[in-house]
Amino acid sequence: MFLSEPAREALRKSQNIGILTGAGISAESGIPTFRAKDGLWSKFKPEELANIQAFMRNPKLVWEWYQYRRNIITEAEPNLGHHALAQWEQQHDNFTLITQNVDGLHARAGSQNIVELHGNILRNRCLTCGNVSEIEEVNFKGTVPLCTCGGMLRPDVVWFGEMLPPEALNAAFSAAENADIFLSVGTSALVHPAASLPEIAKSSGAFLFEINLEPTPLTPYADAFLEGPSGEILPKLLTQWQTERTK
Ligand code: BJW
Ligand code: ZN
Fold it and tell me: Across all residues in the chain, what is the average pLDDT?
């Protein structure tokens, strides 16, 4: 893999490593991304599904969509990109993995220090009592699942217009501020506040890598744009980091 001398120097000197991942890292596991031509939102518009008003209007439709995605996610396996990040964390102390993904594949690949910004699709939350439960506990048979308190359950994810979990957001901001290298991987960098993390890292002095199949609004700010599938690029970048660290 070609890396400029400044990029190799950044890898060599890296102390605090921050990573932000998006749907693209799970694409090679067979999980559709959101905004691609054949993506999740080519048929359904986010405003019809990914906000509380849409849910209150038609909870059954929203649940069908989440159930469809849960089925894909529970059948999927982490790919080489997830595994490379898990191995990288094992080899370095100050490593924070921030993800916008709700699929839980980073944890299944063995990553430990994971900041989930947009929740987790494999959990439910009660609209009435706030209780959070794992999906095994719910029997979804085409109806809207209910909590033991009688309240409606929703997927424990963050919809548009909702606050991100404050602890996760604080951890993400502080990882971005403290990073000396930061990687934005497989995200269209359109959804805030997640999309501001690479910019915060860069303006705090980090060397910014971006890994994506195509340029994004972040690309002009990236110090190194590594074009290609994250399942191929991340293992190579990890090898390069290991090589630089032995110098
Ligand atoms: C590959 C690849 C391969 C493919 N290898 N790459 C500032 C400015 C403007 C607007 C706002 C702002 N601040 C807040 C807002 C409003 C809003 C927002 O950002 N809107 C913009 C879209 C206009 N944000 C919010 O509402 C957030 N809340 C908030 O800010 O609260 C405070 C507040 C409250 C009230 C009022 C105002 C403020 C919440 C955002 C929640 C996002 N939720 C979703 C759904 C989660 C649940 C679910 O899964 O159903 O999260 S939306 C969806 O987008 C999902 C994703 O996590 C997120 C990001 O998508 P991602 O991961 O980037 O996927 P894609 O598909 O877009 O891109 C995939 C990329 O991968 C592509 O680039 C491909 O090329 C690439 N790729 N294969 C490498 N193999
Ligand atoms: Zn309840």
Answer: 94
- Report which secondary-structure segment, H or E, holds 153: strand 153-157
Q: In a mutational test of the pocket of ligand 1, which residue from 102, 191, 216, 227 has the highest number of ligand atoms less than 8 Å from its CB?
A: 191
- Regarding pTM above 0.90, the answer is yes
Does residue 218 surpass a pLDDT of 90? yes
- Residue 130 Cβ inside 6 Å of ligand 1? The answer reads no
Helical ranges in the chain per DSSP H: 5-13, 24-27, 46-49, 52-57, 59-75, 80-90, 105-109, 166-178, 196-203, 230-245
CATH topology of domain 5-31+78-118+163-245: Rossmann fold (3.40.50)
Q: Indicate which residue's Cα is closest to atom 64 of ligand 1.
A: 23
User: Measured from the CB, is residue 50 less than 6 Å from ligand 1?
Assistant: yes
110-128: average pLDDT: 97
Give the model's pLDDT for residue 42. Answer: 79
How do the domains of the chain map onto residue ranges? 5-31+78-118+163-245, 40-75+125-157
pLDDT of residue 40: 77
Pocket test for ligand 1, best of 38, 192, 218 (most atoms within 8 A of CB): 192
